[in-house]
Design brief:
With about 600 residues, the chain is α+β, with helices and mostly antiparallel strands. Helix content is about 35%, strand content about 25%. Strand 17 and strand 18 form a beta hairpin. It binds adenosine-5'-diphosphate and magnesium ion (MG).
């Protein structure tokens, strides 16, 4: 028998689309508060928002007669007809958030407008109205959402740990605060104030409050306008970079969005200034006509599409590269002496510019330009495998090969029969160390070394919950870490890889690679990260290589499964033929 669903059931189903987790509720309610012209918004959550979310604003409030309607599906004060959709500037206009939220939780609303002497308290649970009464209260609205998904336990099971859910909310509020510096945001998690922005309208102050002084000191002003585009905000100097894209924030007409086109424009503009897989900090707003935006995208989805992607790319690329190019970017090297400080705080103590130099030294740009002067047999990998069979595997050949010498303190030149080989000692060394470390990590042979002084690392809430989800993994890998206050951690021991423990800046880098939730496949990534980092450090320390060391290196290299590429894919050995040389000197035709 076919039956019509009742409205409450429809709402519950619809809630599934909009309300996925506590952060979705916070998003809808805070956007409503912003639309209601609030200048101060407080978000107070318990147990990751699963137990309760309280959102208080000082906005225009809701008229008593509108309250019940506000909780009906497709009820909105923001648009009247389909035509309004085009010009709508508010954040939400589908009129389904309150209906959806009320259908899957227990809601209490207290609200008052300027025109009324008293306010109203309204209680609705599982979509069923429980109570409506007058109450004394200030202007504005307070929504309390208790026990989310209490009547849909299956959905509740899909929620993650409180700390993960709180991490999502924290990330969301950071973005909302960054997009609205004129509003004072307060975020309280389990009775602790996590974020409190001043609402003074200055984006820079907002950035410092959320991301800290280090970033504040390294910002470049972005202020660009062309016919159709106004791009305003801040981007970071390249010394501030992260191993993930979490710090790339951008807004379209005040709304936080994600866009592959914008992401690419940003990263292309920074391309020559950042090492691979490092991403900048950005926080800027793009003001454009709504004609540019493809409206056929689900409104809760943050991914936005444009009607003229090339134009959007070009404008953003131009804005950022111009800003970057007119700023002096030569890093100043500082010496870091922490000896006198009892504990270090990572964010302050790591001299970023030094880090940059180190990285660029380690990745010499070596381009292999294939020209017609190079014999076809020299075209790298495929052929190199043969060389192994031909020469290196046989013991007599190893003895026989004649070391000609070292070039540019990096390349070893070796002669054998009718070929000569050029070996990149850095790449070779990295290969050898990498394999060693991976092996010992896999065999759980990594030793942890107790640090003389614990290192305190300040994490953002989100980084902390990412760490929490992977806590066991870190332990397995030889990290000894304890909580230190709410979001900081104390690094007491670190994996001792080769001749020194892994460095704490690298620890943050590893954290950047992880998701908020634990994922099995991340284990491999983690191993790879740790190994590459340890390698870099060790290779750097071994710049001057004697012939003896070279021999030892070559012996070790040749026992490996893949001696021909470093872990980053660059070749370790290339070969040239005598024939080729003789051709060059026109000894043969
Ligand atoms: P929408 O935001 O799409 O209009 P919602 O279900 O989120 O739909 O909200 C319904 C209506 O309730 C809004 O249009 C607005 O009139 C009113 N409303 C919701 N939250 C607030 C608030 N914090 N302050 C004032 N009015 C609000
Ligand atoms: Mg809304």
């Amino acid at each position: 028998m076919i039956q019509l669903l009742d409205q409450n059931t429809i709402n519950k189903i619809a809630a599934g689309e909009v309300i996925e987790r506590p952060a979705s509720i916070v998003k809808e309610l805070v956007e409503n508060s912003i639309d209601a012209k609030s200048t101060a918004i407080t978000v107070d959550i318990k147990d990751g928002g699963i137990l309760s979310i309280r959102i208080t604003d000082n906005g225009i409030g809701i008229e008593p007669l509108d309250i019940k309607n506000a909780f009906l599906r497709h009820s909105t004060s923001k648009i009247r007809t389909i035509d309004d959709l085009k010009s709508v500037s508010s954040l939400g206009f589908r009129g389904e958030a309150l209906a959806s939220i009320a259908s899957i939780s227990q809601v209490e609303l207290i609200t008052k407008t300027i025109n009324n002497l008293t306010g109203i308290r309204y209680i609705i649970e599982g979509g069923v109205e429980k109570r409506i009464e007058e109450i004394g209260c200030p202007e504005g609205s307070t929504f309390v959402i208790n026990n989310m998904f209490y009547n849909t336990p299956v959905r509740k099971n899909f929620l993650k740990s409180s700390s993960t859910e709180a991490g999502y909310i924290s990330e969301l509020i950071n973005r909302l605060a960054l997009g609205n510096p004129q509003i004072s945001f307060k975020f309280i998690n389990n009775n602790q104030v996590k974020l409190y922005t001043s609402g003074n309208g200055l984006l820079k102050d907002c950035i410092v409050t959320i991301y800290g002084k280090e970033i504040g000191k390294n910002l470049i002003d972005l202020d660009y306008s062309s016919n159709d585009f106004k791009i305003k905000g801040f981007i970071s100097k390249p010394v501030i970079s992260r191993a993930n894209r979490n710090y790339e924030n951008y807004y379209i007409n005040g709304r936080y969005i994600k866009s592959k086109v914008i992401q690419k424009a940003i990263e292309d503009a920074y391309k020559s200034k950042l090492t691979i897989h490092q991403y900048p900090f950005t926080a800027f707003n793009i003001e454009i006509l709504s004609d540019y935006i493809d409206v056929n995208v689900h409104p809760t989805k943050m991914d936005i599409r444009f009607n003229n992607e090339e134009k959007v790319y070009e404008e953003i690329y131009n804005a950022i590269s111009r800003a970057l190019n007119k700023t002096e970017l030569i890093p100043v090297v500082t010496f870091n002496d922490n000896k006198e400080r009892p504990i270090q705080t990572i964010r302050e103590s790591i001299p970023e510019p030094f880090e940059i130099n180190r990285i660029s030294e380690l990745h010499p740009v070596k381009e292999f330009v294939a020209t017609d002067e190079v014999a076809p047999t020299d075209n790298q990998e495929g052929v190199q495998i043969d060389y192994k069979d031909e020469i290196f595997t046989s013991p007599e050949n190893i003895i026989e090969h004649k070391i000609i010498g070292q070039l540019f303190t990096t390349y070893w030149i070796v002669e054998l029969k009718d070929k000569y080989y050029i070996i990149d000692q850095h790449a070779a060394h990295e290969r050898v160390l990498y394999d060693k470390i991976i092996k010992s990590l896999e065999n759980k042979e990594i030793f942890s070394q107790i640090l003389l002084q614990p290192i305190i690392i300040e994490l953002s809430m989100q980084e902390k919950s990412r760490f929490d989800s992977h806590r066991l993994l870190f332990k397995e890998l030889g990290f000894d870490i304890e909580d230190f206050g709410e979001d900081s951690i104390a690094l007491r021991g670190a994996p001792f890889i080769f001749n020194k423990p892994i460095n704490p800046k690298d620890f943050i880098n590893i954290l950047d690679k992880l998701d908020l939730e634990y994922k099995e496949e991340k284990y491999g990534i983690l191993l790879d990260e740790i190994a590459s980092m340890a390698c870099k450090a060790a290779v750097k320390a071994n710049d001057n290589m004697s012939i003896l060391e070279y021999k030892e290196l070559i012996n070790q290299l040749l026992t490996l499964e893949n001696p021909f590429n470093c872990p980053h894919g660059r070749p370790t050995i290339i070969a040239m033929t005598r024939y080729e040389l003789e051709k060059k000197f026109k000894r043969i035709q």
